[in-house]
Amino acid sequence: MNNQLFIEAAMRSKLYQKKLKNIELDDWNRIPFTTKDDLRKADTFDVLGVPLHQVATYHETSGTTGTPTPSWYSHKDHELGAQVVLQSSLKLNEQDVVLNRFPFALAIPSFIVYDACQKAGAGHIGVDKASMVTPDRRVIEIINRTNPTILTMLPSEAEKLYHVGLLMGVRFPTKGLRALLLAGELVSTARKKYIENLWGVPVHLLFGSTETGGLFMTCEHGHYHLDNPNVKIEAVDEKGRPVEKGTKGNCVISSSREGMPLLRYYNQDIIQLMDGSHCQCKKTEPIMIHYGRKEDVIEYQNKSVNFYELQEAVYTLHEVPFMWKIKTSINRVQFLCQFIEPVGTAILAAIQRELSEKLGFDIEIQQTDIIPIDKLMDKPAYGKYAYIEREPIHEPELIVK
Ligand SMILES: [Zn+2]
Q: Do 231 and 306 have their domain in common?
């Protein structure tokens, strides 16, 4: 798609009619970036690119990094989102039964998966991650009962659910399972391999966000090829100038999506664009490597480590923890980790050495309960209200009878 079509799509929203009012649009590189702040400050209806009657769904960003951003989707946006999945190497088809653990409240991936299942004629099981009706244990039970061929969820959920399954005596891969489709968090090459080893099936990744929708899926070699004609990706330096191919830069996304078009959206992600023709799959479009958010970069002891590099270090450790997180302050960086079976001080010291070496700075280590293990095995809280309550029959009465 050429630049003009992205400009035309953008000009259908009030946000851009206002923003680009006195701006020369002939020179693409001089079109101002759209920032997260622009979207946060915009009126909810100003970001709309279609009349309200063409809207199919409304979503919002989680708000973890500030005020939530509104995001509208037209019926056509839903169709095109499903196409991203359908045209991918996942090869979703009518023989598939998909267990969908993405949250349905406000997020978009759950709908992309559902739309794709409808289009492909695949079976769909909704087991919302954030619903009290479907805690981890219930999901494992449903997997055992229904033998889904594809599981879709957040990467951290895939790691957690695997361990819940282990605790329940499940053997992996579960019967009939052929793939996982993950989205919503960064997955480095080492992390992808780690999750594939846990579940024993290939992992497919969907790249996108609530603002942009689903944009790309990984090819069979794990690469995001820029093969979506409705999206333009640029990598720019700190001054906003395009960087050379193969150099890391700031991600700038343009999308002609009807519900909420975006023109040169500077989303605070770090990416690198590479020549795509070297990939062993047949695609020739450039490859995008995603290194995570700028705010997730750790600067310490004259070293700078982005989230991708951090994952590469953690997921190649000799002992990968069940859960982990990094805690930083001015004078120290801590690696908090949790193992299903707590490890001894010798192993902990070895992990600390190994991780410090990989990252290039001194990291402290602390074993802690990030998620209480018994919480993982919680029973479902049923969502239905009981209108008729029967008192239990007391034992003495039974004896009288
Ligand atoms: Zn490829």
A: no
Please list all protein residues whose beta carbon sits less than 5 angstroms from ligand 1, which is an ion. 219, 221, 223, 279, 281, 283
Closest C-alpha to 342, from 365, 363, 368, 361: 368
Instruction: State in Å: Cα 267 to ligand 1 middle.
Output: 24
Residue whose C-alpha is closest to residue 285's, from 228, 226, 245, 230: 226
Ligand 1 centroid to residue 188 C-alpha, Å? 16
With a cut of 80, say whether residue 384 has pLDDT above it.
Answer: no
* Dist. CA 116 → ligand 1 center (Å): 21
How far, in Å, CA of 228 to CA of 140, rounded?
35
Report the separation in Å between the CA atom of 91 and the middle of ligand 1, taken as the mean of its atom positions: 15
Report the distance separating Cα 161 and Cα 65, nearest Å. 26
- What is the pLDDT, as a whole number, of residue 383? 63
Tens digit of pLDDT for each residue in 334-368? Answer: 999 999 999 999 999 999 999 999 999 999 999 99
Tell how far the Cα of 218 is from the centroid of ligand 1, in angstroms.
7
194 CA from centroid of ligand 1 (Å)? 20
Residues 159 and 197 in one domain: yes
Model confidence, pTM: 0.94
What Rg value do the Cα atoms of the chain yield, rounded?
A: 24
Q: Does 190 share its domain with 231?
A: yes
187 and 284, same domain (yes or no): yes
- pLDDT band at residue 391, thresholds of 50, 70 and 90? confident
Residue-wise pLDDT for 9-49, tens only, equals: 999 999 999 999 999 999 999 999 999 999 999 999 999 99
